[in-house]
């Protein structure tokens, strides 16, 4: 999508700005909702008169619904078009938000959170598809920087917003706050998104593929979430085994269907998508482990609140906002490898500082280290995400966006599970709290370092004469 003043298609023209604004307004709500409820678990249990294990499904149900819905995104876009699928997904998410706010019991709240997750699971891959198609290879880095904004802000703003709402208003406002944002996002979508021109009325849903992949991903995510639970060992093992079998069966099924599967795994033959997915997976495992450790450390200090824990993560978001626009421009000019590798190295320096900092000295040194992590994070995510789409044909973008979101979702769940188990193990081994946190940061450091290998293999675009 270009203007007559920009025949090469390298400028961020008004049409692309409109699409960018629309998708950011839609995706930021779903990203916030993944974290905003975490701070209110105790309040929900008290007000709904249920145990914490029951109310935890308010979070788990949303996460599992997200995971199960993501795989059908590529088919939905091909069958109904990106614009139509986006509007329907927003409407589902908005309806789920209203119903969650009006929930009369824990069971009703969990059910309505699942409805929210069904709508929310489609939005991020649709957003990436809409932007990638509109931008083309020459502007891919900049649009991926745009779509990364909600992901950067959610871990910071979610706990903060949740803490403020729970402290000053009823917990129902955690869901009602979505409604005006959703209404604006729907209005923008109707007015600004281009008409669907690539929908195929004959697109058939791969029912067997969906029956294998969606529950397989849900089982994997659930199993990973249960690893750190004292009484969840047996459930975690069973869920992980089931998920691994179902996902493996889906891979075999996809290869047999030769491009007609729910997700064509042959897309990973593309070097850009394969190396991007591998780097994002390893990086997500490590960095989301860090995001778990920081609020846990803050809440272990005397006299700190949930809001204090959220504030401690804020420097990471601030650092990311500084470098994210630079990442987009560098990626479009030089390719993804240089900014991606530079970002990972910067993140490694910040995590190393977290591991070495004297935690008894207070939170200021840790906040400074998190700011450094944020500077690197702002370089990593847009550049490596952009690499997934630069060399793919337009028709393959929905499938690639879906596959990328699955990789990040599983990596995120694995990161929080692994680091939680490591922290518990180090704590039980007899070390002090500071030693356990420092050791956990070192493990996260090692995991993030692995992502350098695929990042160094990211393709470099050929220079044109």
Q: What is the strand tally?
A: 0
Helix-residue proportion:
over 70%
* Radius of gyration, taken over Cα atoms and rounded to an integer in Å: 21 Å
The H-level CATH homologous superfamily of the largest domain, spelled out, is: MFS general substrate transporter like domains
Alpha carbon gap, first and last residue = 23 Å
- Inertia-based shape: globular
* Average pLDDT number: 79
- DSSP summary: helix tally: 19
Task: Please indicate the count of domains.
Answer: 3
Q: Main beta sheet: strand number and arrangement?
A: none
Give the helices and strands as they follow along the chain.
Answer: HHHHHHHHHHHHHHHHHHH
Q: Which structural class do you get from the secondary structure elements?
A: mainly alpha
Sheet-strand content, in percent, reads: under 5%
CATH topology of the largest domain: Growth Hormone, Chain: A
| Level-2 CATH architecture of the largest domain | Up-down Bundle
- Low-pLDDT runs of 5+ residues are 1-9
CATH class of the largest domain: Mainly Alpha
């Amino acid at each position: 999508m270009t203007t007559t003043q920009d025949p090469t298609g390298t400028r961020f023209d008004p049409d692309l700005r409109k699409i960018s604004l629309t998708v950011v307004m839609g995706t930021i709500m779903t990203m916030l909702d993944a974290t905003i409820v975490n701070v209110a678990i105790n309040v929900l249990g008290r007000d709904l008169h249920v145990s914490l294990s029951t109310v935890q499904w308010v979070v788990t149900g949303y996460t599992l619904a997200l995971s199960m819905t993501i795989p059908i995104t590529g088919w939905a876009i091909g069958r109904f078009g990106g614009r139509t699928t986006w509007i329907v997904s927003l409407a589902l998410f908005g309806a789920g938000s209203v119903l969650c706010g009006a929930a009369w019991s824990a069971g009703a709240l969990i059910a309505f959170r699942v409805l929210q997750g069904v709508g929310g699971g489609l939005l991020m891959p649709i957003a990436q598809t809409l932007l990638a198609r509109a931008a083309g290879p020459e502007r891919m880095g900049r649009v991926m920087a745009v779509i990364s904004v909600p992901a950067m802000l959610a871990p910071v703003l979610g706990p903060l917003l949740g803490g403020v709402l729970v402290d000053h208003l009823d917990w129902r406002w955690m869901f009602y706050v979505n409604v005006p944002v959703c209404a604006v996002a729907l209005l923008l979508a109707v007015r600004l998104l281009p008409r669907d021109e690539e929908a195929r009325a004959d697109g058939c849903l791969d029912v067997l593929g969906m029956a294998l992949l969606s529950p397989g991903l849900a089982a994997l995510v659930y199993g990973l979430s249960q690893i750190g639970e004292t009484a969840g060992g047996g459930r975690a093992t069973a869920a992980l085994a089931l998920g691994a079998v179902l996902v493996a069966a889906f891979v075999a099924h996809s290869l047999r269907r030769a491009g007609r599967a729910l997700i064509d795994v042959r897309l990973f033959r593309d070097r850009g998508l394969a190396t991007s997915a591998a780097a994002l997976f390893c990086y997500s495992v490590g960095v989301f482990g860090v995001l778990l450790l920081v609020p846990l450390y803050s809440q272990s200090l005397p006299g700190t609140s949930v809001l204090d824990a959220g504030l401690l993560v804020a420097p990471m978001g601030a650092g990311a906002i500084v470098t994210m626009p630079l990442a987009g421009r560098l990626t479009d000019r030089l390719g993804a490898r240089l900014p991606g590798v530079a970002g990972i190295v910067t993140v490694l320096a910040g995590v190393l500082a977290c591991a070495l900092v004297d935690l008894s000295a207070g939170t200021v040194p840790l906040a400074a280290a998190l700011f450094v992590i944020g500077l690197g994070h702002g370089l990593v995510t847009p550049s490596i995400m952009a690499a997934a789409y630069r060399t793919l044909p337009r028709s393959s973008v929905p499938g690639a966006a879906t596959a990328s979101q699955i990789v990040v979702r599983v990596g995120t769940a694995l990161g929080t599970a692994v680091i939680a188990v490591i922290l518990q193990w180090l704590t039980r081994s007899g070390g002090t709290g500071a030693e356990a946190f420092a050791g956990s940061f070192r493990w996260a450091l090692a995991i993030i370092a692995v992502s350098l290998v695929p990042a160094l293999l990211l393709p470099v675009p050929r220079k044109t004469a």
